[in-house]
Amino acid sequence: MMIAKEYFLNDDVLFLAEDLIGKYLFTKIGGQIAGGVIVETEAYKGIDDKASHAFGGRRTKRNTTMYEEGGRLYIYLCYGIHHLSNIVTNVAGIPDAVLLRGIFPTHGEELMLKRSHKKIITDNIGIGPGKVSAILGLTTDFDSTPVTSDLVWLEDRHIVIPESEIERLPRVGVDYAGEDAKLPYRFKLKNIDSISKRI
DNA sequence: CGTACGATCTGCT
DNA sequence: GCAGATCGTACGA
Fold first, then answer.
1. Measuring from the CA of residue A116 to each C1', which nucleotide is nearest?
2. Are A50 and A179 in contact (CB under 8 A)?
3. What is chain A's Cα-based Rg?
4. Measuring CA to CA, which of A10, A84, A97, A106 is 20 to 30 A from A60?
């Protein structure tokens, strides 16, 4: 069952980043479905978060989507190569977002394998924010696309994950953010096996 | 207009 | 463990 828009309007982006672990993310692009279980996320919290593109209330062409109403994708290009996908949360005007850092493939593995340019499926084919976008077929073309549509959507299939199985870590690649670089805003499933056995 | 650099990944050592 | 890829974006002049 698709997760409805209201879910993403929650003003606690840290709660959502953790709660999204274990939820399913799907895309249907070119009529082909790909999807998997979210296993790693990072929270970016409003205009006071030095690691965020919206720090200090910055509004640019790139980050416009962060200020839109929760429930859309914010996708941007990183290092000139990688498309990184976030889910915008909170009400319009407050730039909270959850970066998708890892999924465990469950649907359309064949398609995802092709998109990954690898030879064989491995457990880490969807680990890393660039790879999440790559195997799901998400590019900056999908920036601002609702995650409550036939193209991109989330599902709660009621996988129960004990809090003890989720690690809280500092975010990756945000050393420039000073003190905020140390905040434990990254959520990661300790071992993917605990998921793969439950599917 | 010019410049610096990034919410990364891969391959080679 | 480390360098290189690779280019859009941000920002200052």
1. B9
2. yes
3. 16
4. A10
Which residue in this structure is represented by tokens 């409003």? A46
Which residues 6+ apart lie within 8 Å of A111 measured at CB?
A32, A33, A34, A137
Q: How many CB atoms lie within 10 A of CB A30?
A: 7
Spatial distance from the CA of A174 to the C1' of B6 (Å): 10
Closest nucleotide relative to residue A140's CA, C1' based: C8
Lookup result for tokens 């976030």:
A86
Report how far residue A85's alpha carbon sits from residue A8's, in angstroms, rounded to the nearest whole number. Answer: 15
Residue A192: the pLDDT is 75
Nucleotide nearest to A86 (CA to C1'): B7
User: What are the tokens at A175?
Assistant: 């050393």
Spatial separation of the C-alpha atoms in residues A75 and A142, rounded to whole Å: 7
Average pLDDT estimate for A168-186: 94
Which protein residue lies nearest to nucleotide C5, measured between its Cα and the C1' atom? A81
Is 0.70 surpassed by the pTM of this model? yes
At A177 the three-state DSSP class reads helix
